[in-house]
Amino acid sequence: MGPSDVLIVPGARSARAAALVCAVLVLGNGCGRHGPAAQNATSDTGLDDGSLTVAEGSPLRGKLKLETVEMRQVRSRLLTPASVEADPARMARIVPPLAGQVKQLFVRQGELVTKGQPLIVRSPLSGQVLSLATSPGEFRNDVTTPLLVVADLSSLWITASVPERDVQRVHVGDEALARVAAFPNQEFKGRILFIENVLETDTRSVKVRIQFDNTEGRLKPGMFATVSFLGAATPAIVLPTTALQVGETTYVWVERSPWTFVRRPVQLASENSESAVVTDGLKPGERVVVQNGALLQ
Fold first, then answer.
1. What domains are defined for the chain?
2. Residue 134 — very low, low, confident or very high, per pLDDT cuts 50/70/90?
3. How far are the Cα atoms of 153, 156, 168, 196 from residue 223, in angstroms, in the given order?
4. Entry pTM
C-alpha cells in the first residue's frame, strides 16, 4: 500500500472501525475507469434471462440485418399426386348396332376424327380414337362391348388423391396448378370441378377432379401429375428463411430493446427455399434478425 493509501486511525478507534474503512477503500478502487468492467465496455454480453446485448462499437452490429414483422396476404398450397384422364362427358364408347361381322374399318387407333365421320357406325363427336378393339372379319355377338372409344381431348380432367386430413382445405371452384414430367417447367391452370363423397379406405384419400384446358394437346390421358391446390388468400406473418435458427426447436432472434435480442420459438405453417409462414411466436411490429442470426449463438 502506497503513502496515499494509508489512513491514520486514532488509537481510540476500534478494530471494527478499521475494518470498515478498509472495505470502503476496496470498493473505491473497484469503481475506477481502469477496472475489469471498464475493459469490457464494448464486449457483447449475455444476460441472466437468456437475452444477449450487442455492445456499442461491436463489429457484430454491422453484420446483423433486422426487419420489422408485417402481415402479408398468403395462399396455402397443398401438393398431391394425380393422373390425367379423359373427360367422360367428352368420350364416346361405340358399340355395334347389332350382332354381325365387321367387314371394314375406316380409322386407326390414335387417328383424329370429326363428328359424323364413318367408323362401322358414324362418330358421335369430334376427337381422337383412343382405343380400337376390333378388326375386319371379326364376328361380334355382344352388342354391349365397345368396338372403339373416341374422345374429345381439348379439355381434360386431372384426378388428384387428397389425404383425408386435408380434404377440408379444398373446395369446388378453387384454383389448382398441375405439372407433368413431360413439361417440367410449365404449370397448367385449372379449377376444381367436383370432390367425391367416398373415401378410398386403402389410401385414406378422396378423389378430387380438376378440369384443365388442353387445346394445345400437351396433356395426355394416363400421364402422372402433381397438383397444387391454392387456398384463399389470408393474412399471415411471412419471414425470410434466413431468419430461422434451428436448435431443439425452430426459433428467431427478436429485438427486445435496441440491440438486445432474445430467442423466440416459432411455429411454421409452411416453408420453402425463400420464405416461411409463421403461425405462432411473433407479432406485427416486432423486429427480427433476418441475416447472420447464427452469429448471436
1. 46-74+234-296 (2.40.420.20), 77-86+154-230 (2.40.30.170), 91-151 (2.40.50.100)
2. confident
3. 13, 11, 27, 21
4. 0.60
